[in-house]
Design goal:
Layout (H helix, E strand, L loop, with lengths): L3 H23 L18 E9 L4 H11 L5 E4 L1 H6 L1 H9 L3 E4 L12 H19 L5 E2 L8 H9 L3 E2 L14 H17 L4 E6 L11 H15 L5 E2 L7
Parallel strand pairs: 1-2, 1-6, 1-7, 2-3, 4-5
Helix pairs in contact: 2-8, 5-6, 7-8
The structure holds zinc ion.
Zinc ion binds next to β1.
């Protein structure tokens, strides 16, 4: 029989190990399960990234706004929505934005079988490449959730996994001002740490096409106005970081 102290130590070790695994699987910035692209040491660069599209109204409004500011962004598209709205996905690509893979159906990949992970990643890539006629080389895991198999499978099909370092929570009903304010705080924090900013925003929602994300477009306008005129700050797409 282990002593009480030993039992406590074992329980503590198990708890710590579980905590480490949870961190590795779900933390946006953990590299424990393998390298992921986040942001380089360059405080003057900002990557606007948009997940969960294409979406009705919102994505095209966003494209208009980005075009007016001559700014390119990165869009991680959900395959099933691309299948339903191929013309919006084509509009994103033809405007010169970087397109990434955000799986076919937006599952928590960390808890899926290898076969399901492969189906979600390879299926989305095939759909995007067939629809857009361009190679897809970047992937963001839904919720950032991963395990080693997710990263191995992504690398095996030529995808660079991308995480983030600013998550303003724009899917919550907080309004454009709050989304922008949270993002600006994150950018300032990154700049103090000599880091570029990789911001996750959402032009769509995993629940389906039609999610109301116009506050995100409005917040984007505030960000473009805040940083667009500042000397030295540039908006980039994540492919410039590899
Ligand atoms: Zn997502």
């Amino acid at each position: 029989m282990p002593s009480t102290a030993a039992t406590t130590a074992l329980a503590l070790a198990a708890t710590t190990a579980a905590g480490t695994l949870t961190y590795a699987a779900l933390s946006a910035q953990s590299q424990i399960f393998g390298p992921v692209l986040i942001a380089p040491r360059n405080p003057n660069q900002i990557a606007l990234t948009y997940d969960d599209g294409p979406n009705d109204i919102v994505t095209e409004r966003l494209l208009d706004l980005l075009a007016r500011h001559n700014t390119r962004a990165t869009f991680f598209l959900i395959g099933n929505f691309v299948r339903q709205r191929p013309h919006i996905a084509r509009a994103v690509a033809s405007a010169g934005h970087l397109i990434g893979n955000h799986t076919l159906t937006h599952p928590w990949l960390a808890w899926q079988s290898s076969a399901r992970i492969r189906h979600e990643l390879a299926g989305c890539n095939a759909l995007l490449e067939d629809t857009l006629g361009i190679p897809i080389r970047f992937f963001r895991a839904p919720h950032g959730a991963r395990r080693p198999a997710v990263l191995h499978i992504a690398r095996a099909i030529g995808l660079t996994p991308v995480q983030w370092n600013i998550l303003p929570g724009d899917w919550k009903p907080i309004g454009a001002q709050a989304i922008a304010a949270r993002t600006i705080r994150g950018i300032s924090r990154n700049q103090q740490r000599n880091r570029a900013s990789n911001i996750v925003l959402h032009d769509g929602g995993q629940a389906g096409i039609g999610q109301p994300r116009l506050p995100t477009v409005e917040a984007t306008q505030l960000l473009l106005e805040e940083y667009g005129s500042q000397t030295g700050t540039t908006f980039v797409t994540v492919d410039s970081w590899v």
